[in-house]
Structures are given as structure tokens and as C-alpha cells.
């Protein structure tokens, strides 16, 4: 296993950083993409390099096609075509639908859904050419079960499932697998802001009775990126402690 | 840009992308039936042509392209807008085509300077 060129967005922290490190541990060269926090992006790379891996910190605004193009160009110049893509960058701007502004809706859709589309579109030609590729989109349990206060986030994450399955069909004949990992509540900066009350409530909905760790999500992503997962495509793999069972 | 040049480049692309023998590629070759190309192959061919000719092929222009000859027409029509509709004119249409981009230069903007320099 290993030796591929991988690009991971949102790699400056949380699930993305854990994914970058897991892919590096599998021997892949990892472009760790960050949106704005260059220091944190560099930290991810240092963590990878300190364990003997190869990493490259690359700034990207996934909501902008030109920025995505520039990021890919940088990776291609350094290592060649991207063979493994993990679209993980995501934001949330929660609020009830009745009070949700257009910008609040649009910003989340642009980053979480448009961003994945931009990445997949830019990565596909190289993978088609190589007759091999791995694409993993990071969705959310919210994309399937919904979550009060997260209409924008839930809609974007649900959209990723349709994107995943469509691209899985389009590119399958070229040895490219496309899958989605749907995390439940994970200990990250995104969930740090939850109130204690909400945290207890969410934990109560998880059969395993706890929040997950970024590493537990990363392990599932790394599997889907591996040669071993060559016959898994169009799957929605929950890593949610059982929270979403049945959907 | 003349027809023979475009056809030659298209043959190279077909050999490279589709892995076919150059000998079987002609203007009448059907991408699907003769060259065994599926829809993804065609996208790859188009992207390779866009790169080689510094052109941008609008998606709606791809409908109805089934043969190599039609693809040559398409490239000529985009690279030299004045030659559109007169695909067989070849070199004789070039002087007119040279003047045309001034009024309709957007689609050919990227490729045109090099073209003019070549002829000068």
C-alpha cells in the first residue's frame, strides 16, 4: 500500500489533519490543504514529517474554482497528478430556517457542496488518465438524519451523497472509486462550541455513548483510499457510534 | 490552421487517448463504432484538443459529434470562426479568417497570436 499522491482539504485541524496523518502513515505523499490558517497547515505537515512522511502545505479556498486549480497545479508541479482526493473542508453557520439569511445559507453551500464539486472536477481528468483514483468526500450524519438549526449544513452534506454516487457511476469504468464517510459527533473545533446541554443530548443519541475522535474517522477514510478498498464505491460509510443507524 | 493539421493532431490524440492504431483513424471513423470510444473517452479527446489548440469547446457544441471529421469541423469552427460552415475550404479561407477575430475574437483569443505569428 502507499506511494500515491494525496490531497486533503481542511487538513489544518480536526478530521482533516487526522486524515492527512493517516494517509501519510500509509506511505502516501500528502498535500495538506488549509483555508486560512497557514500556521496550522504547517503544523500538520511538521507532524507528518516528524514521523518520516512527505507533506506539502497548500492554501486553497475550495469555494473558488481558480483557487482549487492553483492548489492542484502546485501539487502537480511538486509530485505529479493527484491520485487520492479527500474533500473534507467544511464550515457551519447554524441557525433556524425561519431566521437563516441568504448569505448564511449560501456560504455553507459554497464551501461544503460547491467546494467538493470543484475538487472532484479538477481531480477527475488526471485519475481518468491514470485509470486509477480514490475520492472520498466527508459528509455527516446530519446529511441523512437532519439536525435542527443546520438546514444549510444538512442540505450541503446530503448533496454530497448525490455527488458521490453520481461520480461513482461516471468514473467507475476507469478504476476510480468514490465514497462518502458520514461522521457523527466528533471531538473537533466544530463541536467545541456546543453547549454542555446539547453535548449531553447528542451523546444520548449515540449507542456508543460518546463523541468519536478524528482518528476514528481518519481510519475509515484511509481504508477507502487504500488498494484494499478497490471494490467499494458509491458507499456511504457511517462513523457515528451508531447514531444514524437505519437511515 | 488548415484541415490536414487538425486531422493530424486529432489522430495523435486518438492514438494517445484511445490507444488505437493510427492507420484506422480517418475522417469517416466513428468514435463509438470504429474507435471503440465511450463518453468518458470522448471527454478526454475533447480536453486534449482544447489543450493542443488552446481553445475552449462549449458543451452544447459536442452534441452530434460522432465522427473524426465532425470533430475536425468543430475545432476549425472554434479556432477560425470565419471558416465555420465552410469546413472544406482549407488554406484558401485563411486570409478571411485572419481578419475575422477582430470582430469575433473571444473564442479564439488564446490561440490567435501564435497563429498570426506563424503566418507572418
Tell me which oligomeric state these chains represent: heterodimer
Gap between N and C termini of chain B, in Å? Answer: 13 Å
Q: What is the first-to-last residue Cα distance of chain A? A: 32 Å
Percent range of helical residues of chain A: 40-55%
Report strand % of chain A.
5-15%
Largest beta-sheet characterization of chain B = none
What spatial order of strands do you see in the largest sheet of chain A?
3-2-1-4-5-6-7
Overall strand count of chain B: 0
Q: Mean of the pLDDT scores of chain A?
A: 96
Helix segment tally of chain A:
9
User: What characterizes the major β-sheet of chain A?
Assistant: 7 strands, parallel
Elements of chain A, N to C (H/E): EHEHEHEHEHHEHHHE
> What general form of chain A does the structure show?
globular
* CA-based shape of chain B: globular
Low-confidence stretches of chain B: 85-120
What this model shows, in words?
- The complex is a heterodimer of chains A (247) and B (120).
- Chain A is α/β, with parallel strands linked by helices and 247 residues long.
- Helix content of chain A is 48%, strand content 15%.
- Chain A has 9 helices and 7 strands, in the order βαβαβαβαβααβαααβ.
- In chain A, helix 1 runs parallel beside helix 2 (38-49), helix 1 (14-25) crosses helix 9 and helix 4 runs parallel beside helix 6.
- Chain A starts with a strand and ends in an 8-residue tail after the last strand.
- The mean pLDDT of chain A is 96.
- Chain B is built from 5 helices and no strands.
- The longest helix of chain B has 16 residues, at 3-18.
- Mean pLDDT of chain B is 75; it is low at 85-120.
- Chain A binds chain B through residues 125, 128-129, 170-171, 173-174, and chain B through 38, 40, 43-44, 47.
Topology, please?
The complex is a heterodimer of chains A (247) and B (120).
Chain A: E1 5-8, H1 14-25, E2 29-34, H2 38-49, E3 55-59, H3 65-79, E4 84-87, H4 102-130, E5 133-138, H5 142-145, H6 151-171, E6 176-183, H7 189-192, H8 196-204, H9 214-225, E7 236-239
Parallel strand pairs in A: 1-2, 1-4, 2-3, 4-5, 5-6, 6-7
Helix pairs in contact in A: 1-2, 1-9, 3-4, 4-6
Chain B: H1 3-18, H2 39-53, H3 68-79, H4 94-99, H5 112-119
Helix pairs in contact in B: 1-2, 1-3
